[in-house]
Amino acid sequence: MSTPSPFLHSILILIVSFLCKASAIQQNGARYLGNFWSSSRTLSVRASKYQYETKYFQQKLDHFSFADLPSFSQRYLINTQHWEGPSRSAPIFLYCGNEGDIEWFADNTGFVWEIAPRFGAMVIFPEHRYYGESMPYGSKEEAYKNATTLSYLTAEQALADYAVLITELKRNLSAQACPVVLFGGSYGGMLAAWMRLKYPHISIGALASSAPVLQFEDLVPPETFYSIVSNGFRRESMSCFNTIKESWDVINKVGQIDGGLAQLTKTFHICRELESIDNLSNWLESAYSYLAMVNYPYPTDFLMPLPGSPIKEVCRKIDSLPDGASVLQRIFEGISIYYNYTGKVDCFNLNDDPHGMSGWDWQACTEMIMPMASNMTTSMFPEFYYDPKSNEEQCLKDFHVKPRPTWITTEFGGHAFKSALKAFGSNIIFSNGLLDPWSGGSVLGDVSETIVALTTKKGAHHLDLRAATAEDPDWLLDQRSSEIKLIRGWLDEHYDEKKAVSAYR
Amino acid sequence: MSTPSPFLHSILILIVSFLCKASAIQQNGARYLGNFWSSSRTLSVRASKYQYETKYFQQKLDHFSFADLPSFSQRYLINTQHWEGPSRSAPIFLYCGNEGDIEWFADNTGFVWEIAPRFGAMVIFPEHRYYGESMPYGSKEEAYKNATTLSYLTAEQALADYAVLITELKRNLSAQACPVVLFGGSYGGMLAAWMRLKYPHISIGALASSAPVLQFEDLVPPETFYSIVSNGFRRESMSCFNTIKESWDVINKVGQIDGGLAQLTKTFHICRELESIDNLSNWLESAYSYLAMVNYPYPTDFLMPLPGSPIKEVCRKIDSLPDGASVLQRIFEGISIYYNYTGKVDCFNLNDDPHGMSGWDWQACTEMIMPMASNMTTSMFPEFYYDPKSNEEQCLKDFHVKPRPTWITTEFGGHAFKSALKAFGSNIIFSNGLLDPWSGGSVLGDVSETIVALTTKKGAHHLDLRAATAEDPDWLLDQRSSEIKLIRGWLDEHYDEKKAVSAYR
């Protein structure tokens, strides 16, 4: 981040604004997934670490109707350098692109690139529709114009895009016999798992990392996410947890007095005077939540430049101020670890565009309804309940669209999801780090012999998909090694079976 | 069919016109499925044999996009008289409505009604969108106006309709724990099987009767359908087969001479003078194909009033004319068994509306692309090849829509369909009668321990789903008895497992 170019700088402002959504503390947790990835764009403006060709494929805008709609060009990144080809039925590793520019996913999913050569595998990273360059209607401006143009931005359409792309690609390469292994992190992990359920003929297995497939309706308690975030702080220090828990009341009280907003603006080094307490609360709450997601064991610059185990650092700061330091002073010092680890930011820009048409915000207002709440017993956040009505009102206001809160569970299985997976699925790894607040909405226990959970106590949001580093702890090496073994097992079984099937047919 | 009302009469004309499509011998066999059912409407205009309530459910027009479209009212027939209710987790039998008025399916699917009481089961027959009363845009006229209004008439949307309906219905009845068993015949059977693959959490098993799920792309040879039709005649009599095989040339020769069309018109008792040989050939070819489908062992009035084993009767007629009778005379006498078994028709009306907007014709021009051909070695029909280009041209002309011939295989599995089913599915019965020309595109061997094929040598198109009659042969009783046992097995296993799952969770 040294001497950022003007271009980088403008992106940074954009990102900070992404992080500070003006909605009250996020009741529909889905928004975190999207903003997480959108945020990750800041720090990756550089030449890709990995080699690939960039190609484009014409996709139908609506796979499930025959409306006369313009097709669009889906971008995909492909590397066949290590692929052993159709003659050896060599595997194809496909990363299910999620809610962002596919180049950033490619850059941040080193695991796939690193293991492909040892499998003789082709690597493909198709981009999710409505993100990056894969824009219907020719441009982002047109694609994001209104609810009508955005209406084909759904998970089912994205799954169908992947199914069509891989089928055509295999046909063109005479690679029909080449098994496909899916990868995905976060929402991409959900897509990978759902692909296994909905398109079992397309792939032989999926690594779904940090995929909160159960974070819908009432499948898990709505308090789960914020409880895990809170636990991350409590684990480090009870006094840190308590300071944060107290801070909301203090902010409220200060904010309500005459000149209080000015005082808060000053205390927190906000560039422009705060217009409401909510803006500040959200800014803080976002930081705590993202800290829990990127609570990686070694220094990263994924979302923000951060030390290893950043929550420990935040708490150390909060706790280490001398007696007599105010709650707000402690919070400011703590949060600065997140927002200003490099120490180069003079003041924080909370400018926000609450009605900005971000793709994931659309998804969070249509299908990805992930109820969230915070209760006083387990959470350090203010108490709040999930209110579907107000969520619906907000979505109608922002996008003129009505959420379908029961659609994902109808389409992919609700309470019956695990038993459907058990009876119908095979070869899925649900990998999770238990520090990650999304882990509570994922699958944490083995579902069957071949649908397995790999959890690490100290892992955070899809850490396993990241490139190997010299600082990787043993438990992370073990997790990745288990993943490689499982994938190899799927492939071995596939090759064995294929011989059998060939003989049988 | 005695003294038909004017209403009945007008439907009869409509039906005869359905039977005689003006396209050359049907290259896209899908059209037969739809017309078969459309045709069945003639003879069922009567009070239903079965008791049910008629209800309506508001459905989204496009489940897979958020376009601002009007919802539509889906009709469903429901009987809860024998249902033992949620407290006993009593089953729900759901027939996947296909391409026609749901009341006719309910009337012609006696098997489901007859077995429901012994299972304490609720019976539901939801209607397929765009058929019967389940019309988007308020009326058939509006729904069938153009390619845009028709564009949501797809199998995937219909499957989603069933998934949403059953999920909501169960929620409203607090019947979430009640297992759903699916039934379907022909295209409805395909939907039932696909539901098992795509919505495994929605049902516990499916009886897919005469479901040609493999009649796509190159999964089975395109000659299959017409070869089976031809075999039906060859089996009865080689001379009958040969007479039919010769007849096409004779018709061509006669048709091409001066006054030839008039001569053919007279020979075949056509009301209005033939405009082309094709019209006559199609009329004959349709009769042979439908005869093979309804080659039931006892007299029926399903499609037309017919004797038992009607192909035997047709061939007996063709063969029994005295030596010296012309080929065309033989053909006319034979075909009259089909078109005029009651002897009440003075002349045949071949009027056709080749561009009539029938729902199934739309489906056959969009997703349901079932390639068909006829070769001289196995077929009694003229030789022809499947020509995707001309099919596409016809669809562009008729509906301004371009077929997607590889979509169904991408969505539901192509060559990998059986292995996907084996790995991912369970509890499907593919029942077929081998006299049925659709049997060649269905699943005729067990796929796994729980995905089984029940075939009868002498059965025709979804005979097993029809109501029991006194004339049912033993092999039919056996087939139905096996089906009942298998369904009971699914339910028993489900109840056993549920206890285990409840204890485990």
Automatic annotation (TrEMBL), chains A, B:
Q: Which InterPro entries match?
A: AB_hydrolase_fold, Peptidase_S28, Ser_carbopepase_S28_SKS
Keywords attached to this entry: Carboxypeptidase, Glycoprotein, Hydrolase, Protease, Signal
Per the UniProt entry, the signal peptide is 1-24
Among Gene3D superfamilies, the record links this protein to:
alpha/beta hydrolase, Serine carboxypeptidase S28, SKS domain
GO terms, molecular function: carboxypeptidase activity
Keyword Cell membrane in the entry? The reply is no
Q: Which residues form a coiled coil?
A: none
A Pfam family: Peptidase_S28
Record's family?
Answer: Belongs to the peptidase S28 family.
What protein is this chain from?
Lysosomal Pro-X carboxypeptidase
